[in-house]
Amino acid sequence: MDSVIGRLQTVRSRIVKACVAGGRPVDSVTLLAVSKTFGADAVREAFAAGQRAFGENYVQEALDKIAALSDLRSQLEWHLIGPLQSNKTRPVAEAFDWVHSVDRLKIAQRLSEQRPAELPPLQLCLQVNISGEASKSGLASAEVPALALAVAALPRLRLRGLMAIPEPDGDFAAQRAPHRALRELLAALNDRGLALDTLSMGMSADLEAAIAEGATIVRVGTAIFGGRSRPAAG
Ligand SMILES: *Cc1c(COP(=O)(O)O)cnc(C)c1O
Hints:
Blueprint: H1 4-21, E1 30-34, H2 40-48, E2 53-56, H3 59-68, E3 77-80, H4 89-95, E4 98-102, H5 105-114, E5 122-128, H6 144-152, E6 157-164, H7 172-191, E7 198-200, H8 207-212, E8 217-220, H9 222-225
Parallel strand pairs: 1-2, 1-8, 2-3, 3-4, 4-5, 5-6, 6-7
Helix pairs in contact: 4-5
The structure holds pyridoxal-5'-phosphate.
Pyridoxal-5'-phosphate binds next to β8 and α9.
């Protein structure tokens, strides 16, 4: 079905099937609808179909969209999943519910200082460069424990877990490997005394592999909103 509602239903049934295949409760995976490059109208359409959590990559685009959808603000959850520069932390601390893309202590410290006191703590994931390429953002696995312990100690934030964007791979077994590595990294942090519950991994092409390895948030754009004609801006 070529509509946001129809595609959302298709994605939901993929998630349910993957949960059943993995012996997981179907409500153990949250669908984050990645609405980057799509307008507020597309978000409203998904909202009308019951979708509540939305992911955005570009800060200014997201702030405009959040403002355009202010009438729904209390019912929506906004997640920043794109790179965050230190000069943009304040509006992010003020407008978002989650940030998945933290990979430096300085960014976390600024978000902590700038999170308004009247809002609940900002929910945070550390982004890990799990496929180990030089070009992608995210920190190396070896650097994760020290940063996680430091971030977990900051006020006004709640460290929830880890996020990764593995290299695309067509083969299911190969897709599982980086997701498994992220799951093992999270388990190692919990062995060191943290209580992290979130694995943000899996996108349109590999959500089944991610769920097989324990994803708790899958970030899905194309399979819900269609192809993005506009390239990454901002
Ligand atoms: C764009 C994006 C997604 C969604 O990717 P699709 O392949 O369109 O599902 C997920 N996570 C991040 C970090 C993204 O930038």
